[in-house]
Design brief:
The structure is a single chain. Strands 1-2-3-4-5-6-7-8 form an eight-stranded parallel barrel, surrounded by six helices. The chain starts with a helix and ends with a helix. The protein has two domains: about 230 residues, Alpha-Beta Barrel (TIM Barrel), CATH 3.20.20; about 35 residues, no CATH class. By secondary structure, the protein is of the alpha/beta class. The radius of gyration is 22 Å and the shape is elongated. Helix 5 links the parallel strand 3 and strand 4. Helix content is about 40%, strand content about 15%.
Length: about 270
């Protein structure tokens, strides 16, 4: 069964797809032992890992570096690497060179933002045996063109436009669609319009799966929390408390203890 057939089967059977991001070996190793369906190495790594204000600073080399690290930690998971800003807009040859880099880094599929202007690429990748996932709705790399990081699909016209974009992606051979920041009924309409799974990022309950950022799920992102995020752990507080306890133990002489200290050899003891 092909990846596309398997994804369609999951949708037909009503089995939800769960995707979480990862950008490094240690988190990927943990995710490899969880029930997530796949791991996304997204261009939002430029924000959560490198401190930029948006995803535009991301590049192919950085995504490839993160993908290699994630593949080492998550040997059993389906990895999706994002095509970062402008990496697919400088001609087919350069685009395919970038595709090759990301696939050889360990990605099983590529996520591409937008439809218009990418039709030939989606078709070519499908014909080349490279699974693709189209990203519509709020597309972070296009935030300058769409007026910022705002919810999409909030008019009938934009809702119909999203449905048509999704249908195009389905026909072009995508294995799934990421739909970001739209009202719940729009998510349901897009889901019903296509044969492939629709994975929501703030698209409501009525889609075929959900994706969130690792740092958001675990409470490590303390600067900004999108409306659609649910935090399952106060990770930042847990880490700060642990580090502060370590510092306190150092200051009081409680660390290291005898258990955490190398003992002298028999020869050294006899010498004394």
């Amino acid at each position: 069964m092909s990846v596309l057939e398997n994804f369609k089967k999951l949708k037909a059977e009503g089995k939800k797809i769960v995707v979480v991001t990862s950008y490094d070996y240690w988190s990927a190793k943990i995710l490899n032992e969880t029930d997530v369906s796949g791991i996304l190495i997204g261009d939002c790594s430029s924000m959560v890992m490198h401190g930029h204000n948006d995803t535009l600073s991301s590049d192919v080399e950085t995504i490839a570096m993160h993908t290699r690290a994630v593949r080492k930690g998550a040997k059993d998971k389906f990895l999706i690497a994002a095509m970062p800003f402008m990496s697919n807009r400088k001609g087919m040859k350069e685009t395919m060179d970038n595709v090759e880099i990301l696939i050889k880094a360990g990605a099983n599929a590529l996520k591409i933002e937008g439809v218009d202007g990418n039709e030939e690429l989606y078709a070519h990748l499908s014909q080349s045996g490279i699974p693709t996932i189209g990203h519509i709705g709020l597309t972070p790399s296009h935030h300058n063109a769409i007026g910022g990081f705002k919810a999409q699909g909030k008019t009938i016209e934009s809702e119909l436009s999203l449905i048509e974009e999704a249908k195009k992606l389905d026909k072009l051979g995508c294995i799934a669609i990421v739909l970001e920041a739209v009202p719940q009924h729009v998510g349901a309409s897009v889901r019903d319009a296509v044969s492939i799974p629709v994975v929501g990022v703030g698209a409501g309950l009525d889609v075929d799966g959900q994706a969130l950022v690792f740092q958001d799920v675990l409470g490590f992102s303390t600067d900004f929390k999108p409306k659609f995020v649910r935090t399952y752990l106060n990770g930042a507080d847990l880490i700060k408390n642990a580090i502060n306890q370590f510092a306190a133990d150092v200051h009081t002489g409680a660390f290291p203890s005898a258990i955490e200290t190398y003992a002298p050899s028999k020869e050294q003891l006899l010498k004394k």
